[in-house]
Amino acid sequence: MTDKTVIIGLEIHCQLNTKTKLFCGCSTDFQGDEPNTHVCPICLGLPGAMPRLNKQAVLYALKVAKALNLTVPEVSEFSRKNYFYPDLPKGYQISQYDKPIAEKGIMEVDDDEGHPKNIRITRIHLEEDPGRLIHKTSRDRAGYSLVDYNRSSIPLIEIVTEPDLRSPKEARRFLNKLRSTLEYLEVFDGEREGSIRVDANISIKGHNRVECKNISSYKGVEKALNFEITRQRNLIRKGQRIEQETRHFLEGRGITTSSRSKENENDYRYFPEPDLRPLRVSGWVDDIVLPELPDARRERFMTQYGISENHARTLTGDLKVANFYESVADADSAIAAIWVADILLGEINYRSMRIDDVPTMNIADLIALIRDDTITDKSGVEVLRVMLDHCMGDNVETCEMPADIVTRLGLTKAAGDDFTAVIGEVIAANPNAVADYHAGKKGAVNFLVGQVMKATRGRADPKELNRVMADALKETEE
Amino acid sequence: MVKEYFFEKTDRTNAFITRLGLAMYEETGGPLEGKGIAVKDNISTAGIPTTCGSRILAGYVPPFDAHVVTRLREAGAAIVGKTNMDEFGMGTTTENSAFGPTTNPHDASRVPGGSSGGSAAAVGDGMVDMALGSDTGGSIRCPAAFCGIVGLKPTFGRVSRYGLIAYSNSLEQIGPLGRTVTDVNTLMSVIAGPDPRDTTAYDRPYTHTPSGEIAGMKIAVPEEFFGEGVDPAVAESVRNAIGKLEDAGAETMTCSIPSMAYALAAYYVTCTSEASSNLSRFDGVRFGPSVETKRSWHDEFRDHRGTLFGKEVQRRILLGTFALSAGYYGKYYAKAQVARENVRKDFLRIFKDADIIAGPTMPQIAFKLGEKSDPLSMYLADILTVPANLAGVPAISVPCGTVDKMPVGLQLIGRHFEEERVVDAAFAYEMEVA
What we know:
The complex is a heterodimer of chains A (about 475) and B (about 425). By secondary structure, chain A is of the alpha+beta class.
């Protein structure tokens, strides 16, 4: 239940999926490459190198600003955030401070009672990522750390909300919707490691605020906030004071700890970046064409495909799933909704597969088999599992067509009459159940039907089978 | 075709930090073909050590050329070496160098001025005809005046700063030094122009042939340039020089720059603030002498920087860090920007009526070595040069006689992107006294 005394605000850092870095031409596509292979004098911070702003990153930030209803001021400005750290090549991060690229927006999200509410967005600003420290072994034993600058100067946007969130669940819903919006805008790749990092501010009304830094998953945000609420409540109950501080979330243990680092006391000494001219891009916003966003797509799915709101919500929450659904909906949109939302997503999740790993052609085939009554739902699940178990991700060839699996395993749905022999065997083998049935326990028929289903591996149509079974039982009545 | 250039001149003034006895140049048919050019040691040169006069960059060899160096090579120049300077450009005498002071070619007991003192001394002593310097608050014009040569600080944005190791980004420009206005004009035409890597640079190439024709040119003479602290003998030399410009047909008028009262303060707050940030990258992690990694990075950075930066650099980093700190930003940095805007407005107002502002480059002749050991008195010597940097306008220093056998510089300041007029005025003076 929503608790009005819990006050949560989020700062979300998202990597933009531009081709090149924010201030140089180095490629951002370094996943899996050797450290320090995507670097140049600019992102290494060599003396004399100067930043050159990536226009694509600016356009991406404006796209997000427009989608979240922010205002883009006529002039914005880059500033330097000064601090020392070994992964920060220049000794400052080029960021934005008092003149961000966009201000004052709104995103709607459902509260814990399911009512829509507006979360105010304070600002969006553009900044560069620092490099990354790699501790080979335990730092004390190795005596050194390594620095990888491949990540240095990857473009980030920081999205800051007002303290409008009232529960950890609400925060998580907000993040899920934000992520899906960013994916719809095609400015963000949620599957990249470290693509999103969240700082969460949380307080109990009337008490000091605590900042939980660098949480790297949505689940983590919810966990950290839950932990903090309990921790802060306990302190309040014991009459203790809540320190205004920065805490770190330990993902593995699900707890936050006081960081007490020097970082805490940093005075970042922001001042305007003299190597970049002020940004005048408010005029670009009108030319940005937004794609259909999650809310609009959900509405469309409901009207165009006649599916339930729940199904539409599940299917549109992830851009790739939504696209997947639309490419298999032709066969039968209602059956497709059930099979994608209720069955397929669970099965791929269980196998740690991604929706991209599943060829739409195969699922369309499966949906047609169900639609045409060629196989039972139960057989359908079996076919799907057999298929997914042998699907090798990007190799479509390895994914056997459902129709072939049906033939190979002999799963074509059979009429009830075809099972007369099996029914006879089941009735003969279970005299007690038959007696129960005749004694008026009509439920006993379900057991007998179940036995037949088991023996025929689900190929029998349950309705048909029920009819034939009832007939057969009548015959046993003396 | 690559050709060899032997550079065997004796360095009497300690003008060079790095000398190339054998320099190479390309037969490009460019305006500098076969010319030996010296480059200030804060301008990146691929394959040639670049130290900024600091121990903290010992052993650093840039992997890339500054834009201006690329332009020099394309013009056929032979880069003969890297010249001495006040560490990171922080000084007015070239005494603040880890490589020892450079001396004045006219008098070895005096400083050559700074911070581009090595470049000015190399030209003044005849080792090269032309050199590149950089000017943050007078660092080209001051040594040009002290060494009796010509030096031009271009409009902010006319020359790419890509590859210039930043001291104060919003103030500084790379510019030419030479024995004559013509040489300075030639070097300027080579280095000016757009560079996509410096997005604060404009697409304003420089293709000018100096003309001595200045009839009707309006020259404003600010009373503040002849005020307190200006040596009367220097003032007289400069007034005589302005008289020569009148002889050549220019009209003079007096004017006032009231904002000069705050110019020096605005300048030092701005440049130290920017420097405190710019110099943060010298942490020993990626270049320069390496740090001992078995200690905590925090201790190591502190000791590394505390040991390898010189006193004046440390002083300015501390000043700038203070000026940007929470609670002081509004009092210092923000106020300095207001004062700076006022200087710019004063210049724009004067330039409504006048084409050129004229006055002394430096209030005195070259100091004796060690004379300006008190930092504040050294800072005060920049009073006449910093306004042009604050306003971003072009300014040249051209020799105009001597006082006590030491050269005096006439400073001519022009409108934004009107280097051509500034050069014409200087050229007219040069012809008038020839």
